[in-house]
């Protein structure tokens, strides 16, 4: 179950994957860049709770991977600059907003 905007975002991603094959589409999805960002964040340890005590790394859920990979995987074909500069997500309490945001910030600084 997902809201209209999530469904539209997923559909846009699928449509863009098909459109990237045409020369007129300016962007391409770079799987390596998407994986690099996701793997970096998953190397970071938890900082609170019992998982922090056990030094467990962050494990991204599928929806988090989708957001991270879309944000960092789409690049301009010519310049290789990222397509998306801003990402807006609404996440309920206790769903890892701070950990994911910190991971993204660290990745952008690295």
Helicity, as a percent range: 40-55%
Structural class: mainly alpha
Count the helices. How many? 5
Low-confidence stretches: none
> Major beta sheet, specifics?
2 strands, antiparallel
Number of domains: 1
Outline type: globular
Description:
The protein has 110 residues and is mostly helical. It has one domain (4-109). 54% of the residues lie in helices and 5% in strands. Strands 1-2 form a two-stranded antiparallel sheet. α2 packs across α4 (62-73). It is globular. The mean pLDDT is 95.
Please give a handful of descriptors for the protein shown.
single chain; 2 strands; 110 residues; two-stranded antiparallel sheet; globular; mainly alpha
Chart the SSEs and their pairings.
Elements lengths: L3 H16 L7 E3 L1 H13 L5 H5 L8 H12 E3 L20 H13 L1
Antiparallel strand pairs: 1-2
Helix pairs in contact: 2-4, 2-5
In short:
This protein is mostly helical and about 110 residues long.
């Amino acid at each position: 179950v997902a809201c209209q905007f999530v469904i539209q975002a997923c559909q846009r991603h699928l449509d863009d994957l098909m459109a990237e094959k045409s020369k007129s589409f300016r962007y391409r999805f770079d799987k390596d860049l998407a994986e690099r960002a996701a793997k970096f964040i998953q190397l970071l340890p938890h900082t609170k709770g019992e998982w922090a005590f056990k030094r467990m790394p962050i494990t991204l859920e599928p929806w988090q991977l989708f957001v991270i990979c879309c944000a960092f995987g789409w690049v301009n074909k010519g310049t290789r600059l990222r397509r998306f500069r801003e990402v807006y997500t609404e996440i309920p309490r206790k769903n890892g907003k701070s950990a994911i945001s910190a991971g993204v910030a660290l990745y952008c600084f690295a």
